[in-house]
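Budget justification, computational time. The allocation requested in the original proposal was used primarily to generate structure tokens for proteins on the priority list. As evidence of use, we reproduce two of the resulting records. The first is shown immediately below.
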Amino acid sequence: MATKRIRVTIVDDHQGIVDGYMFRLQGNPQVQVVEAIKYGEDIEPGLEAHPTDVLLLDVNLPTSPDNSAPYPILHVVPTLLQTHPDLVILVISMYKERSLIRAVLEAGASGYILKDDTHAIQELGNIIIAIANGGIYMSEKVHQTLLKMNPEETEVKLSARQLEALSLSASYPNSTTWDISRKMSIKHATVRNLLSGAYLKLGVNTRAAAIVKGRELGIISSDPASPTLPTKRR
């Protein structure tokens, strides 16, 4: 009897990256790519249409064809895992900021690979098999980034829910707190408290300033239209 193949969905808005992953996986008899998605808002309907075991997820991609703002990964990851409890998420990104890496992993991702980690990309099929069977995988640079901290650095620590609310605010800049409360399935007052608490920790007093500061610190995704990734100020 044939072994059931691990169904993989790729989420990345660069076709060359998608083609590269498919090339690495096409010869693996245990892995089957079922779909490729390029916009954040297409992930949930895509998973409904194509049942998936492992989701290869980029951190930084547009929310939709009409909204180039980065999709709210810190909202999407826990929501997907709640809706699809058997789903395993492997993040593959160029984003190297410690705060966002930690937040993504704490949100429930089973691994974080850097796109310039040649060894990991070459071993992508084996890594997918490993995490599909309960393993966790991180690029060595990611592991070292999480372990190291410059003594001169201070790190802003927002709660998971504060990060989720701020991530949604950045992805939907014209949304009201009522809109965000519906997306998070929580009370309007709770969203206001989450955002006001985040503003206090970030040392700002407006949503726009909080989004800018969050991107500077690397705790939320940068705009995919931006030519460079944010770097933490030293």
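The second record produced under the same allocation is shown here.
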Amino acid sequence: MGNYDLQNPWFLLLLLLLPLMWWYRNRKVTDFHSKIRFPHAGAVPGIQNYKSVLLRYLPLLRYVGLAALIIALARPRLVLKEEEVKAEGIDIILVMDLSSSMLARDFKPDRLTVSKRMAQDFVDKRSYDRIGLAVFAGESFTQSPLTTDHRIIKEFLESLESGMLEDGTAIGMGLASAVNRLKESESESKVVILLTDGVNNSGYIKPMTAAEIAKELKVKVYTIGVGSMGNAVSPISRRNDGTYVFGTSRVEIDEELLTEISKLTGGRYYRATNEVNLQQIYDEIDRLEKTEIDVSVFKRYSDEFRVFLCIGLVFLFLEWLLKNTLLRTIP
């Protein structure tokens, strides 16, 4: 039916009754029916007028009206939009370091704020992915399981703050939390993006143990070391009121460990020394992680049965009105 789609197509079988009704109405009168002939002017040429012509075709209004009502029962829908999308969809867990060193000011205003913003921009680009979020410091937990609701992921990223967890850097715990969320995933491509600025010094799961589990579950791990080279203004102590005391300290990132983790799982290690560099890293990961999935067809519909219902009722009413007024006949 072109751009129309039927929800109850079986009702169209009722249309087959209309020819039978027409035949029944116009069947030849058999000898069993009594008939009385009256004189008429039908045989006189040129005596017909518009009423006699309309009367002949008046029953058509009934059949057109019934046909429209039957189509209304079939619930036609107009396809307003049909779009075929060949999308890329994978499962990704973002792992963010929330240790106090993420407040270092070698990024403006600090590492954590820039890292959250870059992660949010990355989420915006992954329209068809399921994305989750895990965080760690001295311990770790899952902030959000895998979801296609990217709005909530961005809200969780925005709400992240240093101090939410016991201070420290438990890289193994953070990676293990992410891998645990991906173990039930049926996606052909499973990815962890782990961002940290320190050296593993907490947690009861060793980073390489978590990496071995990731490899076993075919989870690819991209690691990002955040921090400038040399020294940076970072928190060096904390006052009784919870505020941090800042001072110059040496930037220490266990690049060897992060490289080993990513190499073991088939990912890559990146070092981000400034905001532009971090943006380029996320862009590169976005280009690398493309997995084509089945074509999805999105359709928008508009129910049109009311149109056919109105047409049917109008035709039936018109037949009744003409039959009892302008085209009224003597029984």
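A brief technical remark on that second record: Residues 50-73 form the longest helix (24 residues).
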